[in-house]
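Hey, sorry to bother you again with one of my protein questions. There's a protein on my desk that I can't quite get my head around. No rush at all, and the record is pasted right below.
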Amino acid sequence: MDTMNPLAKQLNEQIQKENPYVLEMLSELGKQIYFPKEGILSQSAEAGQKAKKYNATIGIAVEKGVPMHLEVLQRNLSAYAPKDLYPYAPPAGKPELRTAWREKMVLDNPSLQGKNYGNPIVTNALTHGISIVADLFTDVGTPVIVPDKNWENYELTFGVRRGAEMVYFPLYNQGGQFNSEALLEALLDAKEQGKKSAVVLLNFPNNPTGYTPTQQEGQTIIDALVKAAEAGINVVVATDDAYFSLFFENSMHESLFGLLAGLHPRILPVKIDGATKEEYVWGFRVGFVTYASESNAVLSALEQKTMGIIRATISSGPHPSQTFLLQALKDPQFETQRQQKFEIMKARANKVKDILDAGQFSDAFDYYPFNSGYFMCLKVKGTTAEAVRQQLLDKYQIGTIALGETDLRVAFSCVEEENLQEIYDSIYQAVKEVQAVQV
């Protein structure tokens, strides 16, 4: 018996007609999911347009014509109207915010000019956006191809939650550049194993290493993805742009999303970004998912399916933080203040590089190439990163993150520039102390 909802069928047929490769990319959940056309939210939206006398549809309380609220809350938020704080935000997000973020995206990524892509859909920050991609495009055994230096949450989101097969390739080649050859090899291996589709996760600036490819390296990534698509594998390319705009040196200063848009029918670009890291509002939990496709019908269907996932999980994102962000984006001081913070972050990154390039630490650790973002990564010599991490905590009261056997991540983003020398001197001392004990 066919149990698929007619709305889901309709969306799938819409995608099949426009681009059958995208339908092949969808997981079983992705095929089954839909946004209810006749549910509470759609009926409430209709009532919002027509029920001018009394609107008794949605589960909020109203008093004297405005959303009911406690004065102990509103007095601290008096700059904002209750209607922009207390009601539910739409599942796809506040419409004005979606428009404002799309405009910002085009300004930040000139390569999007003339490309066809959807309206950003608001997520509960980037982890939620990544989770939506996992739900829509991965099943048990779907290859998820990521660099070997990556954010550990990918494993939880794709591997543990969805049962996808995590496939790792070296982030750097022998020359310390992005390893596009290994990316292509991983995709072709998936094809040889009989996989129709794969997900590629590209996170620039990279967490944990703080690396962003150069323009030339970016083109090699594009070339690798096109070769894979031409070989017959469908590729969902998710650009995790969490640390976007924090580009300090000669690297790409745009997301790969703009270059991927319209590239090949077998390549579906998905941009995952947000205000979290870019605008220094970690606790606001406002992110976005944006799809690119030559077909508006495909974009519409993917938006409906994404709204279905949102409705089935969090229902909608927080309204107040969307309002706060929207007001900030509209403020004439926004870009000036954003640039001021960028300069602080850039100065910290440059200071770290100056400290490390002085050469006095080479018997304790090397560092992986970095040029952007919040982090950089050391490669510890003669001991383990975990032993060094523990020594730094116990003796120096300094916190770092140990990754794997040798890698130690340092977030220069949360250390004042004048304190960075002490951090790296202490790491050096900790490595030497642990080395001495282990001899």
User: Anything to note?
Assistant: The radius of gyration is 24 Å.
